[in-house]
């Protein structure tokens, strides 16, 4: 396999394709700074992309890892999940080292963003692959003269063979907000399984999680992103999504590192970072 980092066309949008010396691969769109593929070394695709996804400037892409900023969902005055996933980012660097491949992209404020969210900022995202490991790091800088608050998430769609056969371990005992019912409670299950629509935010997820499937799994760790969103639209909601096939819910589960409950307050000149790490187990 050729070790490379090269610019490619991905469904009509510019992207960078990474291949590390050990054979791990990833593809990152400039649109949204959006990871759309991750294949661990000698492994299968671990990121779900909807076959009905729309690849068009200004439009969110269904699947992959959308970057959510500066607002989560409708918890604020902006469009759902903010504007970062709808914008074109700049590829700053793409390189291959002895045991890794990395892409680094950047997004800054524009007159359009300041019209809707009157702050100066810079976002940077770094995607690093090595062997069975994927690291995604998001950095936020306040480049203006006024303090701002923000929420953020790495809206990761993980590919699964059959979602009803999956279990997420590591959530037991954590405070949880069910966004479908508005109820708050503590998780009691040692392994959380998916058999209906789920849209939950778990808090203080500082320890690793494990997504188990028959014969494989993914270890998931977040840093400086204390909330974790578990989302699957299930049958009825999935059928309402024009950019998802009707059975698409069976092939994905979102496990998203996030900052939601307690937004970050960033002073002028301040910087913040958060990271989500995945290790594939075959």
TrEMBL record:
EC annotation from Swiss-Prot or TrEMBL: 5.1.3.15
Catalytic activity annotation: alpha-D-glucose 6-phosphate = beta-D-glucose 6-phosphate
Gene3D superfamilies named among the record's database cross-references: 2.70.98.10
Key words, A-Z: Isomerase
Family recorded in the similarity comment: Belongs to the glucose-6-phosphate 1-epimerase family.
Protein name, entry field: Putative glucose-6-phosphate 1-epimerase
Organism expressing this protein natively: Uliginosibacterium silvisoli
């Amino acid at each position: 396999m050729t070790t490379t980092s090269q610019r490619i066309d991905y469904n009509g949008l510019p992207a960078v394709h990474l291949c590390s010396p050990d054979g791990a691969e990833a593809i990152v769109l400039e649109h949204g700074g959006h990871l759309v593929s991750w294949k661990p070394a000698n492994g299968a695709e671990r990121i779900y992309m909807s076959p009905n996804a729309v690849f068009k400037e200004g439009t969110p892409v269904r699947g992959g890892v959308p970057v959510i900023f500066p607002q989560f969902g409708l918890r604020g005055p902006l469009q759902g999940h903010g504007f970062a996933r709808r914008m074109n980012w700049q590829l700053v660097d793409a390189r291959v080292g002895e045991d890794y491949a990395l892409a680094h992209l950047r997004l800054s404020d524009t007159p359009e963003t300041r019209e809707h969210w009157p702050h100066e900022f810079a976002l940077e995202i770094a995607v690093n692959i090595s062997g069975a490991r994927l690291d995604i790091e998001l950095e936020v800088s306040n480049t203006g003269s006024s303090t701002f608050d923000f929420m953020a998430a790495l809206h990761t769609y993980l590919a699964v063979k059959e979602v009803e056969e999956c279990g997420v371990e590591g959530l037991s005992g954590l405070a949880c907000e069910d966004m479908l019912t508005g109820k708050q409670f503590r998780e009691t299950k040692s392994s959380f399984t998916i058999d209906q629509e789920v849209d939950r935010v778990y808090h203080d997820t500082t320890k690793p999680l494990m997504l188990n499937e028959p014969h494989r799994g993914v270890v998931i760790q977040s840093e400086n992103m204390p909330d974790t969103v578990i989302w699957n639209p299930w049958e009825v909601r999935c059928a309402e999504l024009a950019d998802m096939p009707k059975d698409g819910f069976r092939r994905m589960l979102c496990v998203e590192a996030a900052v939601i409950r307690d937004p970050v307050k960033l002073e002028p000149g301040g910087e913040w970072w958060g990271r989500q790490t995945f290790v594939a187990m075959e």
